[in-house]
Fold these 4 entries.
Entry 1:
Amino acid sequence: MNDFTHFDGQGRAHMVDVGEKAETHRSATAGGRIAMQAETLRLIRDGAAKKGDVLGVARLAGIMAAKRTGDLIPLCHPIALTRVTVDFEFDEAHHAIACRATAETVGRTGVEMEALTAASTALLTIYDMCKAVDRGMVIEQVRLLEKLGGKSGHWRAGQA
């Protein structure tokens, strides 16, 4: 039996029909990190990057991307989001910035893709704004951290 839901009985890709599903509060959190040279991290932390407020722009880009996920990911439902947050944490010891994005809705389908899109886009924006001084930055560990709501209930990374 095929458990992938984006294929019909003939194996063709299709958008899943969520019309019969109940509307519930749904939330998902995704995260990732970008590693860089120590000097690049200092420029971002001190607000001294030539392009301006790197994390402010990255936060806005992540929120905007979450709202457009249905336009970016084929077969992904357009969702009316009720809340999106994008937060950053400096990891001085490893010259990195961690990103954590949460998307929420009251709807018939989950927001995992919206959270993942927000985190990925925020990290890509940091790269874009700093690539002139550090082309060797590495975006890594982008993954779903937690999801709540819907038929499958609560899931957290690292739990069985």
Entry 2:
Amino acid sequence: MDHDANALKLADLGSTRAFDIPVETFTHEAETLWYRTPETLFGSRHYSTLVDVWFVDSIFTKMVNQQTFSPEDSEIDELFKIFRVLGTPNQNTWTGMTSLPDFKSVFPKWSPEDLSTDIPNLESACIDLLSRMQHLDPNRRGMRAMH
């Protein structure tokens, strides 16, 4: 049995850098456009390893759905693509969002889609994990909320 068949291997570490806590200011253009997190798309220059959680989720979702990445033309197109699936955030779902440099209050309002419909044939535990990895608010993203 090939143990690497179900392994996720991350590469393309050309823009990696070491960082200490507290995190220093970084560029908001660190990731390829279609992997960027909502906070970096909103111009945040302060972020943590939770951007990697978003990155892994993006890859996993595409693999499960057997889809290729379709890069958007701009950061706003990428944000709208995210909001169409996860819903447009507001102050209740993402505290502090309005203070990000590129936030605009005039975004269209989309409701979140049901992940179990978007990604059929996944066990509920996988859907739960993906929903935690896809959280728009970086302070609520990832494994932190898991028991």
Entry 3:
Amino acid sequence: MEQQNLIKTEAYVNGQWVKAASGKMLEVTNPATGEVIASLPDMNREDVRKAIDAADAAWPAYRDMTAKERAAILRKWFDLIMENKEELARIVTIESGKVMAESLGEVNYGASFVEWFAEEAKRAYGDVIPPHTKDRRLVVIKQSVGVAAAITPWNFPLAMITRKVGPALAAGCPVVIKPPVETPLTALALNELAERAGFPPGVYNTITTSDSSEIGKELCENPKVRKLSFTGSTPVGKILMSQSASTLKKLSLELGGNAPFIVFDDADIDEAVKGAVVSKYRHNGQTCVCVNRILVQDSVYDQFVEKFTKAVQELKTGDVLDTDVQVGPLINEKGLKKVKEHIRDAVDKGAKVMTGGESIEGLFFQPTVLAEATPDMIIAREEVFGPVAPVFRFSTDEEAIQMANDTEYGLASYFYSKDVNRCWRVAEALEYGMVGINEGLISTEVAPFGGIKESGFGREGSKYGLDYFMEIKYMCFGGVNK
């Protein structure tokens, strides 16, 4: 494989590229080919403590920089990301299996958060409150919360870092990043560019490890870490929340989903099909906001299934580095096994395979459509995280809303309708943090990203994102008129 100058084979702590104290190494594998791409330090709790200590030591000087100074470094980081867009996208693709066209899009998306928070750094406004007595003045300011830890997932190895550390760095928080064992190379490439941008030693740290549980526990229990941001499964999020209780750590948790996609009888069916395809099969169905259940009204059910099936059959599977390819591999054998189990269960309970349903080679699996899905199927309750789209029937608006909300999750939801009154009613009734109305792609740096119920809490991106890395301080000045 051609060696890339952004592929780093060491972790980064306190301004230095370092190895694990134990000398242990981990391997990173290309899911499309099975090829070992690189060997990296396999770090332990001793290593992460050093990173936390370095970040804590760097905090006073970094938080005391002006917002404009921090913004200038972030802006340089953004420029470097965009200058190295092709190489970053290639790294994303070879370690995550994401097709090249989507990886290029992810670099743009991820960079947008760095650009946005470079601008928002200068807008962390406070308040002057009208006093309750004549001799007092009441002021509210916002200050950096302190060392921020980011635990990121493999499905967006670049954007999930920038979406978390962009606001942290803008707010004056040094960061300790723990990328997943599947996709650490993207994190280290970003770190290389952050170093070039000029973040002071200790402000930006990246730990690589195969022992996620122990490193996560240290990040949760160490009192020097004041904020933890995690994207991943709900069960792991609950563990991290419990482990953070001893230090009452500030948390942002973006957890699992079970996104419904509702097609009403007055929808533009062709547009709904396009929205469903892009939302369901992006990164082979392996995103937190991917459609998991498609709910279609009886009178347009057959029409939608026919057109949707045809569109899915046109998706191209192949070499992930080919920009014309739309479907890549699943991330690992565990993911492949889950897809097969969900299809087997659905078929046993009466679902009809309209297209797909079979493995291709290695971790590749055919994009699949299941008609006549029912609520008793596993795929109705669990996030499949793969290229399988079950299509359910409903009769009334009330039934659609009930079916959509019948889950403990509440991250993303989608529906298609031309009736503006129905749009308002349904959007307000859906118990989700985000709703796409006649749109299958809703993520953007200018809007708040996050869920409710067991999909977590906290918001990333938008003007709200900075607040989750800041503390509000109230100052009361007395004796002003004396």
Entry 4:
Amino acid sequence: MTDKLTHFDEKGRAQMVDVSAKADTDRHAVASGRVVFSKSSYEIIRSKGVKKGDIGKIAELAGIMGAKRTSDLIPLCHPLPITGVNLEILPDDEQHAFNVTVKVKTTGKTGVEMEALTAVMTACLTVYDMAKAVDKSMTIEDVKLLEKSGGKSDFTREAK
């Protein structure tokens, strides 16, 4: 680890890290997560839906909106000009889950990992909100960064 990983100045005060000396580069991040239901609840949600509307479509929109508002939600996170958000929610009949994957892109001085993770969490929380009348015991699981590129380092999570 480096001693530059801090949001504190030399006097111990919180600060937003100054990225002005960094070059603008194309950057992207991919994150994923899932909402897992009981089998019976999953079958109800998949077959009949819920009274609030199409869970997947509404959660996709909410996730995109979450990515765009990340700097409002995460202290000291830089506001970024996001150039693309692709969020997909797919049902997983075997695991009784909705799998969420998002890719966020920008050209800038800092990466979009936080935007990708915020989009996943916002989508998962929206699924929870819309389905809680059917299954309050559902869980949000396995939220993680899968990959990022741009800047000084790239990352790809190794498959298990």
